[in-house]
Design brief:
With 112 residues, the chain is mainly alpha-helical. The protein has a domain of 73 residues. 79% of the residues lie in helices and 0% in strands. Helix 2 packs antiparallel against helix 3, helix 2 packs across helix 4 and helix 3 runs antiparallel to helix 4. The chain is flat and about 55 Å long. The chain starts with a helix and ends with a helix. The model has no long low-confidence stretch (mean pLDDT 83).
């Protein structure tokens, strides 16, 4: 699906995005049993809190990796402090939203 919207041929960075998405999906899959145990032990809110916190952490780390790494374009002007603030805020919020979604799916999809 992502390849359909990518440039032809896709840039080298596209491969890293795919590798990163696969790694995040595998990590979520491995975390599900742990989150189910958290729900049994501490309840639904604890699952949502942990998933949201982990989502924010992943978002912040991804913002740092992509934001501080530079664009790779020599003609691109450097980002200002406000640009970095916006970048880190938006990507961290996206991580929080994804964490909430993972937490809700974890709670709803827990086997009985």
């Amino acid at each position: 699906m992502m390849l359909a919207g990518a440039d032809k041929p896709p840039p080298l960075g596209f491969l890293w995005i795919i590798v990163g998405l696969v790694a995040i999906c595998v990590a979520i899959g491995l975390a599900l049993p742990w989150l189910w145990r958290v729900r049994e032990r501490s309840g639904v809110w604890s699952v949502l809190w942990r998933a949201t916190t982990l989502g924010a952490l992943v978002g912040f780390v991804l913002a740092a990796l992509f934001g501080l790494g530079g664009s790779g374009e020599p003609s691109t002007p450097p980002m200002s402090g406000i640009d970095y603030g916006i970048w880190f805020t938006v990507v961290t919020i996206v991580g929080v939203v994804n964490g909430v979604i993972v937490g809700l799916v974890t709670v709803i999809a827990q086997p009985r």
